[in-house]
Amino acid sequence: MTAPIRSTPSIFSRLFSGTISTSTKHDALRGRCGIGRWCGCVSLLLCVIVIGPTQAADPIVPHDRIPDQPITETQDKLLTLAFESVSKMPLIPHHKDRARYQSEVVDVCLQLDQPRRTYEYALKIQNWRRGGALADYVIYCRKHGANDGLTALLERADRAAANPGQQWRRDYVRVRIAKAYTLMGLDDKAQEYATGVVDSEIGKLEQLHAKRADEKQFEDLMQSFDLALEKREYNLLINALETCVLLYERFYDDAERRKRVMEVIDRIYTQEKMPIFTQMDVFLGLTEVALDHEDQVSAKLWFDKAFAAFKNASWPVENYITIISRLARYRGRVGGADKAREDLKGAMDLFNDEKQRRTIDSIDRAGVLRKVAETYFALGDEEEAARIYHRAVKLGADNPNARIRAIDLSQACLSMALNGFEPDAKLWTQMQQINEGLGPPW
In the chain, what's the furthest Cα-to-Cα distance? Predict the structure, then answer.
């Protein structure tokens, strides 16, 4: 395949010929306009040159020994369509959105155990996110027994993120590389890449240790929680809470250690005023762990705490519908399916109220509906899920800007693939037509 650097003249031609599309409402809302956009174009040119060819082959490709797991024909087609639609976005000026949503497809491919497709798609990402995607791919391969070829891939991941423009982007990739080296048993290399990483990212490495912790490492982590409480730094406390969820899972059969983990969570919430979103994430994480261990009593307890946190706040309509849909999914799993359906009906009544719906930005409405559809499907209400998916896809297709249509189509495909939803012939035809119609204005 042609290396990106060879397409540079045509990029310069477009950059200086005035053919690049104007800013849309979505651009303005996200702050993409003016001189920043032109600076981004120059950054992209440098990024393309540094990253190099997208399809250069490695001597050893780990997924040759780790086959893709079976998925349905529909899931296969949905993943293809998800990646194809966002890849139609022109690199200039939309390289950031294109890479971001391509990387989301890569993430779902890994969740569905598709390493070969993951690798193929990762190489097509044209900015620093390629580094993160390759590192995640290596982590997956190592967890599934691969050894050969991993170091070369991590070196490639490092090069892809060599000049990302902002430190958080570099750290995003470096901490994933560090996680991979940790799994490979190369602790010195892991430490090299973890050094200097910001607290918000280094917590992800600590969470890897929590998943594999022995009794001594458990005590070390408990001491780190005490330090986080003493420093009272937000990122350290967030990392502590997320790590507690993993320790709760790791030592679920150890009642005494599990009790100590819960005490740390209580201390953090007693001492600090943590965001409601964080509280819900932690409580639902604990709910998930309890459900995995078939402990319905504990799962219900943690779910009730999550729901109480939700009820203690006022929410914009968009957030309310999205969150209540997520909570309803868990409510169904802890034995409250009927109440979950009531919650979903209330969410849809709110969305169907024109005055309330107008408070949701038009570019976000399809995404809100997808969350409702996912939960209906999880509850076994396939007809209602199909009806709402149809509506969500239609809403996403109504935007005159092709970039938004591409993003909404890709997100719909990922939602369906990940949840195992099978679109009917009418919906599938509509989605294909949306993809075929993608083009200027972007």
Answer: 69
Q: Judge if 164 and 242 occupy the same domain.
A: no
Tens place of pLDDT per residue across the chain (442 aa): 333 333 333 332 332 233 333 333 344 334 344 444 444 444 444 444 445 444 444 446 776 778 899 999 999 999 999 999 999 999 999 999 999 999 999 999 999 999 999 999 999 999 999 999 999 999 999 999 998 899 999 999 999 988 878 889 999 999 999 999 999 999 999 999 999 888 778 778 888 889 999 999 999 999 999 999 999 989 899 999 999 999 999 999 999 999 999 999 999 999 888 999 999 999 999 999 999 999 999 999 999 999 999 999 999 999 999 999 999 999 999 999 999 999 999 999 999 999 999 999 999 999 999 999 999 999 999 999 999 999 999 999 999 999 999 999 999 999 999 999 999 999 999 999 999 999 999 9
End-to-end CA distance of the chain: 26
Same domain, 48 and 181: yes
Please indicate, yes or no, whether residues 176 and 208 belong to a single structural domain of this protein: no
Amino acid identity of residue 242, one-letter, is: E
Q: Give the SS3 label for residue 439.
A: coil
Domain carrying residue 180: 34-197
* DSSP for 243-288, written as a single string: HHHHHHHHTTT-HHHHHHHHHHHHHHHHHS---HHHHHHHHHHHHH
Same domain? For 205 and 336 the reply is no
The model carries a pTM of 0.86
Whether 333 and 428 share a structural domain: yes
Residue 149 covered by a domain: yes
Same domain, 301 and 319: no
- Same structural domain, 369 and 424: yes
